[in-house]
Amino acid sequence: MTTTRFAPSPTGRLHVGNIRTALNNWMLARKGDGQFILRIDDTDAERSREEFVAAIREDLAWLGLGWDREERQSERLDRYEAAFAALRDAGRIYPAYETAQELELKRKIRLGRGLPPIYDRAALELTDAARTAKEAEGIAPHWRFKLDHEEPIVWEDGIRGPQRFDPAQLSDPVIRRADGSWLYMLPSTVDDVDMGVTQVLRGEDHVSNTAVQIQMFTALHAAGFAAQHDGAEEVPDFAHEALLVGREGKLSKRLGSLGCDALRERGIEPEAIVALLARLGTSHPVEPIADRAALVEGFDLSTFGRAPARFDETELERINTAIVHQMPFAAVKDRLPEGMDEAGWHAVRPNVKTVAEADEWWRLVTGPIEQPDFAEEDRAYLAEAAEALAWGEDPWGALTAALKEQTGRKGRALFLPLRQALTGMDHGPDMGELLPLIGEDEARARLAQAAEA
Ligand code: GLU
Fold first, then answer.
1. What's the pTM value of the predicted model, to 2 decimals?
2. Ligand 1 interacting residues, C-beta cut-off 6 A
3. Scanning 17, 84, 391, 414, which has the fewest C-beta atoms within 10 Å of its C-beta?
4. How are beta strands 174-176 and 142-145 bridged, if at all?
5. What are phi and psi of 429, to 5 degrees?
6. Element (DSSP H or E) covering residue 451
7. Which tens digits make up the pLDDT trace of 76-87?
8. Atom 4 (ligand 1): residue with closest C-alpha?
9. From ligand 1's centre to the CA of 208, what distance in Å?
10. Ligand 1 geometric centre to CA of 79 (Å)
């Protein structure tokens, strides 16, 4: 069974970048008839906020990305402690005492010598006496995971293809701070093991973390820490999505902060966000597909490209408009103005970019409207229209046919004064649909009023 997870840190709202990761993990799970886990990465007590946990849940629910299980790292600290003990006993974790300044200095020196700025493992050379002396001075250690330098780290990435890292070119990662708090690397691996995650799909900024974590998975299994899940491999499958960039080709601040809440306020529908992000950076065309099942059906990691995916807000707006034009009355009725029925929605739908814009057009139906000043000959024409108005199956068709016959007017001269008198506007929804909604008495009154003015 496929098990995927979306693991946001609750330090802000969801934005287009992590919505895409959530969506792709959701689709991967749905396609594999599997499980999608929402994992709240809240080990950083200082930056994590409860209000963001709530907002993440709310945004995912609004997007229609339901999760089968929710986990929180802050409730799993005993598991991290146990993994730490197991790895330490296995000789895969060691204490280090350098201060941040010392590490920075070492980094600069290595860079100056043209060496990769990785940790030199000086702490591994410390004697027991030296360590005891440090601790007697009151210096608490932070802890590093000791990479195995023997073998290259390799994996077949679901998007990037074969990957190979030389562990000697990587720093032994710090996994725990001197105050006992956890950094991202180990808890995430422990969770993926415990929760039986089969596929890790995330941004390519995590590629080198994956190299390290692959060794952690193997070490946890070797240390007997990991209970084997049915059918799950020791190490999950990994895939890394190319970065999302703005139209200009860079990941702009603005794009990074384009939050789900802001999009929603702008009238962007969840289905538009999903339709765009599901196809962005893949070889499938971006289309206004509101049918979620069809998107899931077509989801395939082999269609994902390695080039950065371009996110264009105008494209999102275009998709949104096309999605809104497909939306059935039942899907929008709670957001429509009072009294607007199915015929009303169908009349205005082709003219709106967002559902909220239905309000403006509906005011043309309910009135009051503001009519322009008409020239004298148009006033006479409108008086004739008020007389000619007859109610039946298609009042607009009947009215314009009769007026054409009586007055010889055609085209703009025939239609525009009528539209202006009836709606106060010179453009808008189809009059054939609008006129029945305005109603006979009100329509006659508006024509008569325009004729008088
Ligand atoms: N909390 C991490 C992040 O938001 C999760 C990374 C992962 O998927 O493992 O970057």
1. 0.92
2. 7-9, 41, 188, 202, 206
3. 391
4. antiparallel
5. -60, 160
6. helix 440-452
7. 999 999 999 999
8. 8
9. 13
10. 18
